[in-house]
Design a protein that fits this description.
about 190 residues; mainly alpha
Length: about 190
């Protein structure tokens, strides 16, 4: 329906794609982002939307390419740096992910999601003290952000640190039922919903 109403309006297609991404429909978001890019390839946020959708579809290498396009178009695009850091981490490139997340934080020191993901990457590298400092900073900045809370619970679960990660996952899902990290964590921890 949306394409018939806005077939040549790149911004409208981008916004519709963003709605699909928020509703956990990355395949649909991918289609709208690609259509928007076909109409206006110079908009970095269109590349970021596509990269985010691809990352949610477990295609980090393709996501990295689109974040690079976004960063070329706007070197200070904070979300492009963050999504690239997440894609690099997902692709197993921890050191590169950390560099990109640190770059995100240079551009936006209060980016709670970047701090939380940075904490997760640091824990994976056994840098536990720095990881705890990064997560504490993320929670100070945005204590109620479901994504940040989900990353904390996920990090506790994956790295088998004491703490009630099951309660953390449930709390996140109470606030944001579509938070996929919390859904996955609760499922993998074999806890009843």
């Amino acid at each position: 329906v949306a394409l018939s109403h806005y077939p040549n309006d790149a911004r409208a297609l981008y916004l519709i794609g963003h709605c699909h991404l928020v509703m956990e429909r990355p395949e649909e978001a991918e289609g709208f982002a690609e259509k928007a890019l076909s109409l206006d390839a110079g908009q970095p946020e269109y590349h970021v939307l596509l990269a985010h959708a691809l990352l949610n579809m477990h295609q980090p290498e393709r996501a990295i390419l689109h974040t690079m396009d976004a960063i070329r178009a706007d070197p200070e695009h904070v979300e492009a740096h963050f999504i690239q850091g997440a894609a690099l981490y997902t692709a197993g490139k921890k050191e590169e992910a950390l560099v990109m997340l640190d770059g995100t934080l240079r551009l936006a020191p209060d980016h709670a999601r970047a701090l939380a993901l940075r904490s997760h990457v640091l824990h994976a590298g056994s840098l536990h003290l720095k990881a705890a400092e990064s997560m504490d900073a993320a929670l100070r900045i945005d204590p109620g952000n479901p994504h940040t809370l989900a990353l904390k619970a996920w990090s506790d679960f994956v790295h088998q640190r004491p703490g009630d990660h099951v309660h953390g996952f449930r709390e996140v899902l109470r606030r944001s039922p579509l938070e996929r990290i919390a859904r996955r964590g609760l499922l993998l921890s074999s806890a009843p919903w």
